[in-house]
Structure formats: C-alpha cells, structure tokens
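Run log // design_07
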C-alpha cells in the first residue's frame, strides 16, 4: 500500500452556502476546523439541519467550499483534476444502500467502480474476492442485490467502496433504514475494517449508541462545530445535548437519573455493562 499522510481529511475555516442562499446569515457550515487522522473513527452528531450531510459531501468533493478549504490526503478538493482520486480515497455510503446497488449480481456490483477505473480483469477479480471474503459475502456473489436483506445490502455497498482501496469511509446514517440485526452487521463490519486495515471512518448518526462506538464524537449545531472529544465525555454532557434536542445513550441518561437519587455512579457511563458494573460495585461497597 502506498505511503499515506497521517491526516486523512483536514478542513480549514471551511464554509458552505447552498446556491441562492449567499445572503442568508446562517450558512450550511461555517468556520469548521477539523482533522481526521488515518485510522480514526469519528462520529458526527447534531440536530436536523446542523450541516452533517453537507460536511460529508464537502469531504467527498461532491460540493466545493464557498470559503476555506478541504484537504484529502493533502490534496485540495477544489483541484478538479484530482477529484476522481479524492472520491476514490473517500468512499461514501448513503442512508439507503439501494441507491448504490446498480448491477444484476453482487459480484458485478462490487466490481462496478473498478471497471470504471479500467483496471485489468485479473485485478478486479482479485479485489472482488478479497472484499467479499472480508465482509462474508462469498456465498452471495451470484445473487441479485435487490433480493438481499438490509444488512447484506449494506455490506455489498461497503464492499463496492472497499474494492476501490480508499483511505476513508464516509457514512451518512447508513443504518437508519435497517433493523437491529442488520444495523449490527453493517457497523460491526465497518468497525472491524477500521481496526484491522486502518481505514478512517466518518459516521453521521442520530443514534447515540452508534456514536459511542467512535474514537471521537463531534457535535455540529447550525453549521458550526461546537464540541468534540471522546464519547464518554461528549455523550455524558447531557446539559449540552438536551439544549440541542439530543440525547445521551440510554445508559448515560439512566445513570444521570440514578445520581440524582443518590447513587454513586461515575460520570463516564456509556453502556449497560458499565452501568451494571458500577451499580454492583456500589452495592458491594455499601
């Protein structure tokens, strides 16, 4: 694999106004200074209309900055001759995987982007087989994508991106239309690839339990970055989250209620296991 810079994505004083909205005082995103390291998993959360999807599209060069800049692998997204390479490096997974499935079989779908790159057939076959194995899709390669389950469709969409050998995966609420099992299948596959292959991940989600999986959580509000940090800190800042109409995880919310009733529970609770362990420990001390 070629040497890649430590920073996968960087923004500097990034701003974007949608066409026809230049005179509106609240741009879609404004003054964003953010960097995503190679191999880092970042969750973006915020109220509807806070600029999360716009930011992903700016990362992917689907939109060009009104002000400031976006650098992907050190390359500005405004360099037109580099935009194909930028989109290959920053693969985007949308909310509805059906929008990304274009072929009649799974293997053809995974190969679609590679064929557009005009890679040799042996290399295409090698990459299709590799990513199918990584995502547990070998037995589905001859199947029509539209007959698969939601989780399987999600994994096929991911496979098509991974075959392009990106340095970063951008996910725009990829589990919003999935059931619980399919959601776990998709997110488990992405997290595993993030850890094993060092892929950077930027994940837009409305689910605090999904955000809790990340290395870092970033909160957007009215187009501005207002908070970021480890999930245990950001998702337990319930005063801020509630002001924005957001919630912490179910466990962090319950832990806060128990504290008001006098239970001695640490501030950085994210999941049921941590909460149960804390309660058991508190009972043993008493």
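design_07 sequence
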């Amino acid at each position: 694999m070629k040497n890649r810079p430590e920073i996968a994505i960087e923004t500097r004083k990034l701003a974007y106004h949608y066409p026809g909205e230049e005179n509106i005082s609240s741009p879609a995103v404004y003054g964003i200074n953010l960097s995503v390291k190679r191999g880092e998993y970042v969750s973006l959360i915020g109220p509807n209309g806070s600029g999360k999807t716009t930011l992903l599209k700016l990362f992917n060069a689907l939109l060009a900055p009104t002000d400031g800049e976006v650098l992907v692998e050190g390359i500005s997204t405004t360099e037109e001759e580099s935009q194909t390479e930028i989109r290959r490096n920053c693969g985007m997974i949308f909310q509805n995987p059906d929008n990304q499935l274009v072929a009649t079989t799974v293997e053809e779908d995974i190969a679609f982007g590679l064929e557009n790159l005009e890679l040799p057939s042996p290399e295409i076959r090698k990459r299709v087989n590799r990513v199918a194995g990584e995502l547990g899709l070998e037995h589905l390669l001859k199947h029509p994508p539209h007959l698969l389950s939601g989780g399987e469709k999600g994994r096929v969409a991911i496979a098509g991106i991974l075959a392009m050998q990106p340095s970063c995966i951008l996910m725009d609420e990829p589990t919003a239309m999935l059931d619980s099992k399919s959601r776990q299948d998709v997110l488990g596959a992405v997290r595993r690839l993030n850890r094993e292959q060092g892929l950077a991940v930027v994940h837009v989600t409305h689910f605090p339990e999904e955000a809790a999986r990340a290395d870092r959580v970033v909160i957007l509000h009215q187009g501005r970055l207002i908070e970021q940090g480890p999930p245990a800190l950001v998702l337990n800042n319930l005063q801020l989250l509630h002001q924005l109409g957001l919630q912490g995880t179910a466990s962090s919310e319950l832990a806060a209620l128990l504290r008001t009733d006098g239970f001695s529970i640490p501030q950085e609770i994210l999941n049921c296991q941590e909460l149960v362990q804390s309660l058991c420990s508190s009972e043993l001390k008493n």
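The two ends are 56 Å apart (CA to CA).
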